[in-house]
Amino acid sequence: MARQYRSDRLGQEIEKEVSDILRKRVRDPRVQGITITGANVTGDLQQATVYYSILSDKASDGEKAALGLEKAKGLIRSELGSRLSIYKTPELIFERDASVQYGSRIDQLINKLNTKE
Question: Phi/psi of residue 44, each to 5°?
Fold first, then answer.
């Protein structure tokens, strides 16, 4: 149970710091509209999956954002290493958060039902 608590705390800290690093340190225009929505850390604290969302629904914008994050991964990880007081900085894996698109789709369906009545 203590391990779960530690990985959850580290995930929250990584989420906060990665968001700050993207805002202040990364100059790549491909990552400017990215919002960090969460981070999950494995139990052994070796890997962290960072979830992000973008405002655009275009596939090309999603690909550009993914490429920008992949390119900036080294900078982000080195900055995390200097900001966090842990023995080894976790390997970062960036995944697009589909919950925002899912929620938007549900809203569209509800609005469509309400307009028919």
Answer: -90, 5
Angle between helices 59-83 and 2-24 (to 10 degrees): 110
- Name residue, tokens 């906060």: 16
Residue 108 identity: Q
pTM of the model: 0.83
Cα end-to-end span (Å), the chain? 50
**CA pair distance 87, 15, nearest whole angstrom:** 18
With beta carbons less than 8 A apart as the criterion, state whether 9 and 1 touch: no
- Closest C-alpha to 72, from 41, 49, 94: 94
- Beta bridge partner(s), residue 35: 53
Q: Per-residue pLDDT for 32 more than 70?
A: yes
Q: Which domains does the chain carry?
A: 2-116 (3.30.300.20)
Residue with tokens 């991964």: 73
d(CA 70, CA 105): 28
